[in-house]
């Protein structure tokens, strides 16, 4: 299904996307979800896409080909750029949605748009199938589209606007790695773009295959270190409940119809002790 | 929405469920998702539920009240027990689905059923709205229902059938903690039941509120240790691409219509170096 994530940090933007697409498990292909628009020294815009591939490609193509009054190249602000993308979504909807419906296919697309125009701060948006959008802020400094849930907890734990670009990239890769392990519709290679605030050009980009040494290190090391941390966490200690233990410490029991309710011995059910020992030897 | 997880390990079973239910964000309540059936010395069965609360409660009530030929108390094997639960789901569907449809409500329910009958090994099943089910095995030793995606990667990384019961419980709590942080429809208190193989009674159960010392330790320590591991991972190193760098190492660029394609300087885009330094000081 895709997984794309982008972060708006104090020192710039981080973008990471996968390349797997599928129309069922026997029809899996590789298509890039990232498109970069650069007019060196004036603007850098990055568009990540998820959803129905034909829909998202049509939207991207509409933007690239546009010769209207308002294009991605002459929009004055990032909000205007977001509106250009939103309008492209609506144009493609007007053209294709009915035909898709005939075949029982949803008009399903979502985008992340981020970047910077000279003289303005960098900004980050998420756009919906309806062509409208929301913007990232310091209290919500990242967006995800596609299979977002697997990789969300680690970002929630680690990323704030003051996170460095390299740490943001590291965290995005871990988030992607967790997703790759748990969902087959997301796959390598990955596109990673790190945008440095005010550079107004792409200075850092990598297309990561499974033999990229850094990605392999993340893949192998993170899991190994997690197992080590896990082993070091204290084990639960089970202790007998005190006599007259309250009902709240007993499991929600249903008894056989031929027995009196609560015929078992509640005192022998152990509960989690409030004190617990150390973990396994480190 | 709920999150429940259960594992079938070599030495027994682990069950963990939350208690939050909601009919929209202004209608949040606490209901237990776990129900335990025990005939001491003969059978212990644990049922976890997710989905529409009225549907799942109706199914549970049907099972508890049953005086038919085939009940949860006289079923001969765990497969027979699963069929009893499946039939209860179908009875409730027959009774309620049409009325629900009138109000645009899906007949949505899923269950995890696990336990042991004397003389047989413990087993674990997942049941669907259609009343059919699948069984856990050594290659798939756990099931999740409800908001399962957030908490899946950690279980995939850590749990195998040879995992101890205490480690299984620890991992389930971490999985739940990740879910709680990232989704407001899952909430405390939690019901944790650890079933020891061949005990044929409930020996270990805890209802965990946010002031339970062990759960607080998991909640605080896991996140802190993750941040530490993260800081210790090497930072990415960015290095200039070699002259004549292949197109695969460049971002997927779209150029402004008034410029020649590839007008930028590809050599100045840095990529991830294959060698990288050590991490932050531990």
Structural features, described:
The structure is a homodimer of 282-residue chains. Chain A has helices at 53-65, 78-102, 152-158, 165-182, 213-232, and strands at 3-9, 12-17, 20-22, 28-30, 34-39, 43-51, 109-117, 123-127, 133-135, 142-146, 190-196, 204-208, 238-240, 253-254, 270-272. By secondary structure, chain A is of the alpha+beta class. Chain A has two domains: 3-222, 4-Layer Sandwich (Glutamine Phosphoribosylpyrophosphate, subunit 1, domain 1); 235-282, no CATH class. In chain A, the strands form four sheets. A five-stranded antiparallel sheet of chain A has the order 10-1-2-11-12, covered by helices on one side. A five-stranded antiparallel sheet of chain A has the order 5-6-7-8-9. In chain A, helix 4 packs across helix 5 (213-232). The longest helix of chain A has 25 residues, at 78-102. Chains A and B meet through strand 5, helix 3, helix 4, strand 11 and strand 12 of A and strand 5, helix 3, helix 4, strand 11 and strand 12 of B. Strand 14 of chain A pairs parallel with strand 5 (34-39) of chain B.
Any key phrases for this structure?
282 residues; globular; alpha+beta; Glutamine Phosphoribosylpyrophosphate, subunit 1, domain 1; 5-stranded antiparallel sheet; homodimer
Summarize the structure.
The structure is a homodimer of 282-residue chains. Chain A has 282 residues and is of the alpha+beta class. The first copy, chain A, contains 5 helices and 15 strands.
Summed up, the domain count of chain A is 2
Number of helices of chain A: 5
Q: Briefly note the structural class of the backbone of chain A.
A: alpha+beta
Radius of gyration over C-alpha positions of chain A, nearest whole angstrom: 25 Å
Biggest sheet layout of chain A: 5 strands, antiparallel
In the CATH scheme, the class of the largest domain in chain A would be Alpha Beta
Portion of residues within helices of chain A: 25-40%
Given as residue ranges, the uncertain stretches of chain A (5+ residues, pLDDT < 50) are none
Distance between the termini of chain A: 39 Å
């Amino acid at each position: 299904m895709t997984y794309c994530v982008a972060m708006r940090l104090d020192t710039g933007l981080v973008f990471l996307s996968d390349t797997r697409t599928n129309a069922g498990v026997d029809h899996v292909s590789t298509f890039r979800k990232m498109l970069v628009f650069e007019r060196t020294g004036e603007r850098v815009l990055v568009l990540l896409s998820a959803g129905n591939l034909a829909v998202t490609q049509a939207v991207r193509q509409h933007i690239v080909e546009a010769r209207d009054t308002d294009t991605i190249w002459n929009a004055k602000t990032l909000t205007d750029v977001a509106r250009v993308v939103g309008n492209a979504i609506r144009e493609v909807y007007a053209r294709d949605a009915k035909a898709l419906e005939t075949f029982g296919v949803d008009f399903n697309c979502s985008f992340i748009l981020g970047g910077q125009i000279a003289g303005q701060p960098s900004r980050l948006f998420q756009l919906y199938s309806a062509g409208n959008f929301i913007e990232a802020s310091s209290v919500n400094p990242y967006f995800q589209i596609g299979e977002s849930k697997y990789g969300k907890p680690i970002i929630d734990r680690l990323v704030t606007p003051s996170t460095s670009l390299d740490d943001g990239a590291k965290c995005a890769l871990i988030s992607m790695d967790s997703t790759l392990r748990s969902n087959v519709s997301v796959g390598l290679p990955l596109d990673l773009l790190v945008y440095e605030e005010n550079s107004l050009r792409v200075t850092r980009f990598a297309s990561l295959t499974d033999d990229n040494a850094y990605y392999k290190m993340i893949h192998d090391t993170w899991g190994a270190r997690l197992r080590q941390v896990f082993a070091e966490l204290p084990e639960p200690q089970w202790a007998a409940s005190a006599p007259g233990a309250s009902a709240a410490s007993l499991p929600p029991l249903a008894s056989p119809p031929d027995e009196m309710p609560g015929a078992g011995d509640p005192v022998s059910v152990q509960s989690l002790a409030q004190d617990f020992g150390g973990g396994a030897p480190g």
